[in-house]
Design goal:
- The complex is a heterodimer.
- By secondary structure, chain A is mainly α.
- Chain A folds into 2 domains: 61 residues; 31 residues.
- Chain A contains 3 helices and no strands.
- Chain B is mostly helical.
- Chain B has a single domain, classed as Cytochrome c oxidase, subunit III, four-helix bundle (Four Helix Bundle (Hemerythrin (Met), subunit A), Up-down Bundle), CATH 1.20.120.80.
- In chain B, 80% of the residues lie in helices and 2% in strands.
- Chain B is built from 7 helices and 2 strands, in the order H-H-H-H-H-E-E-H-H.
- A two-stranded antiparallel ribbon of chain B has the order 1-2.
- The model of chain B has no long low-confidence stretch (mean pLDDT 93).
- The chains are: A mainly alpha, B mainly alpha.
- At the A-B interface, helix 1, helix 2 and helix 3 of A face helix 2, helix 4 and helix 7 of B.
Chain lengths: 109, 217
């Protein structure tokens, strides 16, 4: 087996992109965009993470099985986050039960 | 089959390619479990940040963004040197491999050093360490304390991973200096590299979530 050698140039370009994105996210955080701040920060982080995984971790040149494991890990993480948040974020959608007349006050918010 | 090839091949494998696939797959499965491990912390952070957003933003505001950004750059540099170390191992350049491994270790030590000597120490002096010494007045005091619980757990577990990574790289550096790696036997260096890059990716997400959410105030 001959190892897959990637030119040094590629690594330096990816590194430059990572530093650039770090500067961008640090700057973007100083601008008040409301809820968009978090979205932008996470998008930039996802870009950086993808660059590291694809190039530094050679996922781009890895076998299919390895790539599936990497994607599956993210899928499981999505399940973890989605199911947790589907509980916490929807708790107040339905009003708390009024209860019996004598104890109704303790559930009112 | 050359002698080097035979020595590099474990007897349970058909050939070097299969051996490489197996170790790479195994490492990625381990990293998947690590994603779930950190995922629990990220999920907890997301829930409580949603519940106490003003407190989390105020807590984040107390962190030093410059030091956080500096450490991010240091870690990205270390990922570059690690990638170059793996490349040197594949090419069988012993001296280059040792140099890049040592550089990676030094950058890793810089990261942990800045974290402990400047950031955590500063937090301690500012009475921002929940459970040991935490003082925060105002309506958001308890929420800020909660933010710092997440801050110390997330950065602490991340720093622990860094220390383990540094120890692994130290062993590899010694082995590399003995000429144990070459174009036919570089799996250990590559797998350590995967671990190191993974720890870098975790920090890439920790930096905005911990340091930047309070920056626009």
């Amino acid at each position: 087996m001959s190892p897959h050698i990637i030119p040094k140039r590629t690594y330096f370009l990816i590194f430059a992109a990572l530093i650039g994105l770090t500067a961008l996210t640090t700057y973007a955080a100083t601008v008040d965009l409301g809820r968009l701040n978090t979205v932008i920060a996470l998008l930039i982080a996802a870009c950086k993470g993808s660059l590291v995984a694809l190039f530094f971790m050679h996922l781009r040149w890895s076998g299919r099985l390895t790539q599936i494991v990497a994607v599956a890990a993210l899928f499981w993480l999505a399940i973890l986050l989605a199911l947790t948040l589907s509980d916490y974020r929807t708790r107040r959608w339905t009003p708390a039960a009024e209860g019996w007349a004598t104890s109704s006050n303790q559930f009112n918010r | 089959m050359s002698e080097g090839r035979a020595a590099a091949l474990g007897e349970q494998f058909e050939d070097l390619e299969q051996q490489h696939e197996a170790s790479s797959l195994g490492m990625w499965v381990f990293l998947a479990t690590e994603i779930m491990f950190f995922g629990g912390l990220f999920a907890g952070y997301t829930v409580y940040r949603g519940l106490y957003l003003p407190g989390f933003e105020a807590g984040s505001h107390l962190l030093n963004v410059k030091l956080g950004a500096f450490n991010t750059a240091v870690l990205l540099c270390s990922s570059l040197t690690m990638a170059l170390a793996v490349r040197a191992a594949m090419l069988g350049r012993r001296r280059e491999l040792v140099t890049f491994l040592i550089l990676t270790i030094l950058l890793g030590l810089t990261f942990v050093g800045v974290k402990m000597a400047f950031e955590w120490h500063h937090d301690y002096e500012e009475h921002l360490v929940p459970g040991i010494d935490f003082v925060s007045e105002g309506p958001n005091g308890r929420a800020i304390e909660l933010f710092f619980v997440f801050y110390f757990f997330m950065t602490g577990v991340h720093a622990l991973h860094m220390v383990i990574g540094i120890a692994i790289l130290a062993v590899l550096t010694w082995q590399a200096s003995q000429g144990r790696f070459g174009p036919e036997r570089y799996n250990p260096v590559e797998m350590a590299g995967l671990y190191w890059h993974f720890v870098d990716v975790i920090w890439i997400f920790l930096f905005p979530l911990l340091y930047l959410i309070g920056a626009h105030h």
